[in-house]
Amino acid sequence: MRICYVAADVAVPHYRGSSTHVYELARNLAKLGHEVHVVARRVNSSQPKLETLDGIIIHRYQRGIFFSSRRSSFSSDTGARGSYRGETSTLLWRSYEAYLRTIFPVYIAIEVARLVRKYKIDLIFERETSFGAGAMASELTGKPFVLEVIGNRVTRLQVRRSKKIIAYTTGMFEGKAEASKVVLVTGAVDTERFSPDPASREEVRKTYAFGESPVVGYVGTFQEWHGLTELVAAAQEVLHARPDVRFLMVGPYYKETEEKVAAAGIAGSFIFTGPIQYEQVPKYMNASDVLVAPYNPEKIESTEQVRKHGLGSPLKVFEYMSVGKPVITTNVKPISDPIQDGVTGYLIPPGDSRALSSAILRVLGDREAAGTIAAAGRRSVIANYSWSIVAEQLQTIFENVVGPDGKRSSS
């Protein structure tokens, strides 16, 4: 089957979770023998417009049509979290948002329609954040359309045009007429890339002179709802009991957290690496003795949208578990779904720094028990949460929509 995966807002490849999701899903569909074309975001002029990686064909388009966005957060490797909106007048920002929802998706739709005809595409699969470009291309070409929903920017055209809707949380379409189209799937992890690696562990620990110190690791984009305030508070308690502990903080936009650490007087116990290329991330996870993801959804600015639509699948938690490390995360669905507390990981209440510090000290105080739980966690993701499993699920859905012979099913 020839598939066009429209993810025009996402840079591929990239270290962000959205990029990982698109790249891994496309790569694993290609491994099943499908010809996969990914329509992705071109961040700057140094990126090739057309590239083949890991068996997938990537077509890149810049948001400005005739110019690349100079303020793309995908191209920023600084520690500070920039905001195009914060640096721009309300009128200009609203004009830009209107452009992204109108002119830009029409442009992408025309390009996708061109790719459909050129490569004889059988099915259009759109990530919802592409503002309906895939749905429009489906209208233009008559090709069957499947929608993938990650967040809350779904358009009426996308819902109407879709034969099936792939969703990662139950609340997204609950009680709505289109609920009959929804198929629930889960996020996943590359269990080969993210695997135990003693050599990488020693390499990274030597780089940062950790010696025999126990290391608590965090990997992410340092958003406040990731529980970073709670992590800093928990670190103070942990260091009071175990001054030898070190905290390895991996990812971009870390400046605000770094300032909080300095204000707490514990900067000497923290390492901030900045952004790391996706293929290098497992090394840093392996260097840690426990990995934390203390999400606190109440700190998401659009909490009403979270209550209405839910959170996405916790890719980071899957990756943590896959490298065979004990994982501490919060007891909030669907984040907690892959964790059986005390069996495959540890769950704590969101926003509870004391529970977090207690869990960290518990892991570090009983390495044997933590190792048993970590091994069980890895076995669980291999059995239930690999990208190959998700790709096989989508393959079945796509074949039901298109038909095994490439012709659209009447169902």
Structure explained in plain terms:
By secondary structure, the protein is of the alpha/beta class. It has 2 domains: 2-188 and 386-402, Glycogen Phosphorylase B (Rossmann fold); 198-384, Rossmann fold (3-Layer(aba) Sandwich). Helix content is 39%, strand content 15%. It has 14 helices and 14 strands. It has helices at residues 17-31, 90-101, 103-119, 133-141, 156-161, 198-207, 228-241, 255-263, 281-286, 303-309, 315-322, 353-365, 367-384, 387-402; strands spanning 2-6, 35-41, 50-53, 56-61, 123-127, 145-149, 164-167, 182-184, 215-219, 246-250, 270-272, 290-293, 327-330, 346-348. The strands form 2 sheets. An 8-stranded mixed β-sheet has the order 3-4-2-1-5-6-7-8, sandwiched between helices. The chain has a 6-stranded parallel β-sheet with strand order 11-10-9-12-13-14, with helices on both faces. Residues 83-87 have low confidence and may be disordered.
Domains counted in the coordinates: how many? 2
What's the CATH architecture name of the largest domain?
3-Layer(aba) Sandwich
First-last Cα distance: 18 Å
Percent of sequence in beta strands: 15-25%
Q: What's the CATH first level of the largest domain? A: Alpha Beta
Instruction: Compute the CA-based radius of gyration.
Output: 22 Å
Main sheet overview: 8 strands, mixed
Main sheet strand line-up? 3-4-2-1-5-6-7-8
What is the helix tally? 14
Query: What's the SSE pattern?
Result: EHEEEHHEHEHEEHEHEHEHEHHEEHHH
CATH topology of the largest domain: Rossmann fold
